[in-house]
Amino acid sequence: MEKHIQLPLTEELAKTLHAGDSVLLSGIIYTSRDAGHKRMCEALARGEKLPFDPTDATIYYVGPTPAKPGQVIGSAGPTTSGRMDAYAPTMMSVGARGMIGKGARLPEVVEAMKKYHGVYFGAIGGAGALLAKCIKKAELIAYEDLGAEALRRLEVENMPLVVIIDSEGNNLYEMGRKDYLEKHGQK
C-alpha cells in the first residue's frame, strides 16, 4: 500500500515513515547536488542564511535537463546520493529533513538522520522522464551559474518514492540483503 505524503516533512510525519514504505510525495521540494550543497554549507559556515528556509525541507538530489517548449522541466532523474554525504549532516542540522536520491549513504549520514529525524527516499535511476511528469512547477531560486546544479524550488504531485532509510536508521538496503541471505541459508 502506498502512503500519500503531503510536505513539509515535519518531525511527526517523518516518524510515521518506515524503511520499505512506498510513498507518493506531494508538495514543495528543493533541488541541489554537490556543487550547490558545497555553496550552501560554506554560506552557513560564514553565518549567512540559505536561499530558502530549510526547516522541514526535502531536497531532491537532481540536475534536471533543460525543459523543452511547453514543459515545466526536462528529465529529472536522481543523482547518486553519496556525493552529498559530506554536506547532508550540516543540512539536517539547520532543519532539512528529507532527502531524495539513489544509492547507499555513509554511516555518518544515517547517524545524523537518527539525531535530526531525517528520511532518505529512493527514486528510481533511469526514470527521469517519468519523474519529471510529477513536477508541476519549477522555479530557479539561486546559483544560476551552476546550470543543472542550480537551486530550484519544485512543486511535485504524487512523486513515486520508497523510504530507503527511516528516522530510526532502519535501512532497506541492509534489511533486503539480510532477508535474502536468511532465505537462502546464508548468514
From TrEMBL:
Which superkingdom, per the lineage? Bacteria
Extract the Pfam families matched here: Fumerase_C
SUPFAM superfamilies membership: FumA C-terminal domain-like (SSF117457)
**Keyword ATP-binding part of the UniProt annotation:** no
Q: Does the keyword Lyase apply?
A: yes
Report domain Fe-S hydro-lyase tartrate dehydratase beta-type catalytic positions. Answer: 7-174
Which Gene Ontology terms cover its molecular function?
Answer: hydro-lyase activity
User: Which family is this sequence assigned to?
Assistant: Belongs to the class-I fumarase family.
By what name is this protein known? Fe-S-containing hydro-lyase
* Natural source organism: Candidatus Fusicatenibacter merdavium
